[in-house]
Known about the structure:
Shape: elongated
Structural class: mainly beta
CATH class of the largest domain: Mainly Beta
Number of domains: 3
Helix content: under 10%
Strand content: 35-45%
Number of helices: 2
Order of helices and strands: EEEEEEEHEEEEEEEEEHEEEEEEEEE
Amino acid sequence: MSKIKLTGHGSGSGTLTIQAPDTDSARTITLPDATGTLLNSDGDGSSLTGANANRPNAKPLIINGSMAVSQRATSVTGLTNGSDVYVALDRFGFNEFGSPSSQHTMTQESLTSGNAYINGFANALKMDVTTAQSSLDADDSTMIIHKFEGQDLQLFKKGTANAEKFTLAFWVKSTKTGTHICELFDKDNTRTCSQSYTVSSTDTWEHKVVNFPADTTGIFGDDNARSLDINWFLSAGTNYTSGTLQTSWGGQDDTARAVGQVNTVDSTSNNWHITGIQLEVGEYSSTTIPPFQHESYGDNLSRCQRYFYKTSAVANMPFASGVCNGTTNARALLTYPQIMRANPSMAKSDNTHFKVYCGGTSVDTTSVGFYYGNTQQVLLYVDVSSGLTDAESCLIIDDSGANAYITGDAEL
């Protein structure tokens, strides 16, 4: 029979000894101490690095860090100042401030080779410079953004005496070598902290692990509102680079946010790529960072649909059901696949690429409206010229595939 011996200490640490049956060999594990570190005393004193002791079996904090989901589009051109924040890959936004003349194409890139690919990543976010800007104006900046709800960040204990450090890790490839800047922006308290990372080789996938200190000032709101942004700068004018890089948490000082950032938009030959993004509680190095937590595509998509939902782009596919209200109007309920973060803003491709299927006949729509929506569903008012049967049940159908869609947007 196996023997198990547990020895505890007043400090909260202890040891667990497991001895196999009919043998003198035993394995001793040092239980987590106050820091949450799990150590292995198996003759070599090495640490167990296969899991994060602070977040066992938890979902990744970063949603879509593998860049597998891109509901809106797989490629969007002409991105410049004033472009929508979310345009392609889910949960990752693009923004340019100031009056830049540079333009980009954002693409969900399929990987077939390189270090990121052989480490398990088949997709990446790619920014391709299509209109260059060699000289930046003072107020110009370009960045990729990932935003968090405050209620998902409580484990960092920010603003308390027990505040935790942040570790950000990712795979990056850039045509421009040199210093690049990533920033944590606490929107609740208007506090920032920036760190640099170095791209050593041009157009080569490199793994970066970036540490941010704990912050005992400024609590994240425990709600579904935007509390924290991760900003990866691609370019920054002197308004963001004229000070000293703020590597400790402090009130927002624009001059200290992106000091040293290379200009990745100065040539149409430039590209910037990222994938495999993870955010961890605590401080880790390149050798101790927990493995990236890969999710199934379905789980990843479900988490993205909390923020954005797009009806299936399949011709003749029903997406809502209801009843005809006379001969020219139908009312149908569209239920979202996930409860959304907030009541979404609804949009449609147009009014005429849908059909109402009623009594065995499909009738072209003339208009589609949205009423009485909440985080779970929305009522559609759909008009046709004629041909419906009052009080008959009906289906609302996508008439032309990718050209016809309805979206719900509850992004931060």
